Amino acid sequence: MRKWFFGILLLVSAPFLCPAQSLEEVIRLAQDSTLTAFQSRYQFEYHLQRYAQFEALRKPQLELTVTPNYQRLISDPTRNYVYLRNYDRFSAAAQLKLSQKVLNWGGDAYVESQAIWSEYFGRDAADRPRDIVALPFAVGYQQPLLGYNPHRWEKTVESQRLEAARKQLDYGLRRIAEEATARYFRLACAQGTLDMCLRNKQTADTLYAIAKEKASIAMVSLAELRSLELQRLNAANALLNARNEEQLARESLASYLRTDDHYLDGRLPVPEHTRMVYLSEEDALDMARTHNPAVLQKQTELSEALQQQQKTRREQGVKLGVDLSMGMQQLSNTFLGAYQHPQFFMLGSVSLRIPLMDHGAAKRGNAAAAAWVAREEQALREAERALEEDVRTTMDNLRSHEQMLAHTAEAVALADEVFELTAENYANGLCDINTYSLAQNRRDNAYNQHLSALAGYWTTYYHLLTLTQYE
């Protein structure tokens, strides 16, 4: 009789096929192949190219502009006005312009060269000569709103956007690690439960077979035989449910990894040893504030709101703008004449706009911008508060799971020892089937709690890595 029980006790959750991929390999595959990973990389690539475009636009820009124009004027034939003439006018303008944003002031400086050709056709065009206006060289500076520097704000906002996108990519990859870990341990726990149910089914079948032999010689009561039959039936049902759950967990992980089920053949190795995290709560909070993309995004939105507030503040009351230029210019009816003896010119204009009656539009616009700044400041504080709460909760959960792992490992070892002793006592007739079933249930419960503690620890561990970008 003892041989039966010691044979049963040797049935452990050994793999039925070749070993499957480890947790690190599954995470690596998930970060390389999942749809979320592709989306995160494309999103970062978009922001990276957008920032490169922004940087390129802050460098000198050289542009050639050619503008042809056709105009047809027809006077009323019944009215012979002197200033009305019938003619067609064709003109073309070519401008070569080199511009540069003046980052410290907020305006744009430019150097340009321009030529305009005008030709007249028609019966009344004889007295209108060809016009050629040449602007060999001109330099200028323009700024529509003094006191407001959009270039500095753009630099701040675009830099924050790129940094938020970079952190979002890292955050997304770590969220993938979290999800892969959760699905990995769902399958690992399902496989452990399946092994346990298979072991229990084999035990129940063995005990029932032995009891039937004993019942034939009246060594086992009918009640005990029925109890063993019920235990055998329950073990079969539990095994069927465990197989269904294992299949669902396998398909879930394979679907997330965008691979087939054969990649997950065999039993998943469960990492038993924990990893040390040398982080205090304050260090974890500081790292989370620095790396969290949601907080960085709120900081970007606050910068945009502050930019709009400063702009609307400058637009209240008197608005000043400047446009200064100087260069050489000449008018002639030939190209050569237009470029001979150019005359120096200097133009300067200051635009002064005074709202005499705007019904408080500018004031209300600034009040709206100020309200939006207050809203973004509150949103930033709320994001930081939620992040701090998440970090503290995660740190507490990690410590709790570490303690739980130690306790459940001790419970598994003790439950195995108790079950072995109880099985030996039952084989020797020193205890009844109820005592044996109770020891078996306690062992199964201890094993399930240990698997749950392992899953909770590793998912919490990777969530902490997501929050803090800790390596």
How would you describe what is shown here?
By secondary structure, the chain is an alpha+beta fold. It folds into two domains: 2-54 and 153-302 and 368-468, Outer membrane efflux proteins (OEP); 59-102 and 107-147 and 318-354, no CATH class. It contains ten helices and six strands; from the N terminus they run αααββββααααβαβαα. The protein has helices at residues 2-9, 23-33, 35-57, 150-216, 222-257, 281-291, 293-314, 335-338, 361-427, 433-468; strands at 61-73, 87-102, 107-121, 131-143, 319-332, 343-353. The chain is elongated, with a radius of gyration of 41 Å.
Query: What is the CATH class name of the largest domain?
Result: Mainly Alpha
What structural class should be given to the helix and strand makeup?
Answer: alpha+beta
Shape: elongated
What topology, given as strand order, has the largest sheet? 1-2-3-4-5-6
* Topology order in helix (H) and strand (E) letters: HHHEEEEHHHHEHEHH
Low-confidence runs (pLDDT<50, min 5 residues)?
1-19
Largest sheet: 6 strands, antiparallel
Summary tags:
471 residues, alpha+beta, Outer membrane efflux proteins (OEP), six-stranded antiparallel β-sheet, 10 helices, 17% strand, elongated
SSE layout and pairing:
Elements: H1 2-9, H2 23-33, H3 35-57, E1 61-73, E2 87-102, E3 107-121, E4 131-143, H4 150-216, H5 222-257, H6 281-291, H7 293-314, E5 319-332, H8 335-338, E6 343-353, H9 361-427, H10 433-468
Antiparallel strand pairs: 1-2, 2-3, 3-4, 4-5, 5-6
Helix pairs in contact: 1-9, 2-3, 2-4, 3-4, 4-5, 4-7, 4-10, 6-9, 7-9, 9-10
